[in-house]
Amino acid sequence: MALIPVTILTGFLGSGKTTLLKRVLHESHGMKIAVIENEFGEENIDTDILKTESKEQILQMSNGCICCTIREDLREALQLLAAKRRKGLVDFDRIVIETTGLADPGPVAQTFFMDDEIAETYLIDSIITLVDAKHSNQQLDDRQEARRQVGFADQMFLSKTDLVTEAEKEALIHRLKHMNPRAPIRAVHFGDVPLSEVFDLRGFNLNAKLDIDPDFLKEEGHEHDHHDHSACDHDHGQCEHDHDHGHQHDEHCGHDHHDHEHGEHCNHPHHHHHDDDVKSFVYRADRAFDPAKLEDFLGAIVNIYGPKMLRYKGVLDMKGTSRKVIFQGVHQLMGSDLGPEWEADEKRVSKMVFIGIDLPQDILRQGLDQCLV
């Protein structure tokens, strides 16, 4: 039986989760969706729209969707829904889990890795983070939860962009990309997102695609040319252009746009305008990895830094196999899989992206270098 896809919807209060959810629950889209309101016992802000006057936990909607409000464990709710579905008591094709505004999506995502019964029934399709363009800079400055939600995202939707200037919007997108270069960012009007952009994104799967924003890669290559000459030689033209691009925005953000992430490389205090603790970096290598060394190193790193590692993924060239090796993880939980064959004319390059809280880039880079054949 096919696994049931799960979408985790996260984002700060006022970012538009409720509006999006309302649409999912009430639109006649022909999909049968179960929505799990993940309250964790907090005061539920959206009671009125989810019509939970009855004491029932599971509600049937007119369009065939169901809503399940949980105050207990997410795992129990998922098991309950799966059991009812098997018995033919409820029918649904997919699940949307809405986390509360301050929730860390990490434990929610981990539920799908840790429990065999859950893993045999459900599959995370993607984590979607809604970002309120008007208030998010303040939220990102003040709340680590907001920064974590950005770090975890497979897809970001930017709401309320009509309330900010184009320059403010660009500056925010730039900031978000430095925290998470894997997640596409799309500006949306309230509740207007086509459902095709919400479901079946396959952002979380172990696939051979490692989408990293190309602008981010240019900047990475430029900053770290001592790590990766090949990438930088190739990208120099664009690097030059990137600096110019930064200066256009100087008056809005008080420093060269190019350097959000790389505060640590320079001594100008004004570069720390948004020195977010959630950061990402990309590692590339054109020599193969030694599988045993890499496994030992990643195991050790995850043991030490696991709680600070939000999301990480790699498509790797491993000695001893003609196929790509794909690995990814959330906090301490890591999984890997064999992907497609390397094409005959394809350059065998390993690429990894790490998104985490104050991760020690130098230690990771040096350790990974030492795992190369």
Written account of the structure:
The chain has 373 residues and is an alpha/beta fold. The chain has helices at residues 17-26, 47-50, 74-86, 105-114, 116-119, 136-142, 144-152, 166-179, 214-223, 229-248, 250-253, 291-305, 361-370, and strands spanning 4-11, 33-38, 58-60, 66-70, 94-99, 122-132, 155-159, 185-187, 278-285, 309-316, 323-330, 333-341, 350-357. An eight-stranded mixed beta sheet has the order 3-4-2-5-1-6-7-8, sandwiched between helices. A five-stranded antiparallel beta sheet has the order 9-13-10-11-12. α6 (136-142) packs across α7 (144-152) and α9 (214-223) crosses α10 (229-248). The longest helix is centred in the middle third of the chain and has 20 residues, at 229-248. The chain is globular and about 55 Å long. The two termini are 41 Å apart. It holds the Pfam family cobW. Its EC number is 3.6.-.-. Keywords: Chaperone, Hydrolase, Nucleotide-binding.
Q: Which key features would you list for this structure?
A:
373 residues; alpha/beta; eight-stranded mixed beta sheet; five-stranded antiparallel beta sheet; 24% strand; globular
Give the topology, please.
Elements: E1 4-11, H1 17-26, E2 33-38, H2 47-50, E3 58-60, E4 66-70, H3 74-86, E5 94-99, H4 105-114, H5 116-119, E6 122-132, H6 136-142, H7 144-152, E7 155-159, H8 166-179, E8 185-187, H9 214-223, H10 229-248, H11 250-253, E9 278-285, H12 291-305, E10 309-316, E11 323-330, E12 333-341, E13 350-357, H13 361-370
Parallel strand pairs: 1-5, 1-6, 2-4, 2-5, 6-7, 7-8
Antiparallel strand pairs: 3-4, 9-13, 10-11, 10-13, 11-12
Protein name: P-loop guanosine triphosphatase YjiA
Enzyme class: hydrolase
EC number: 3.6.-.-
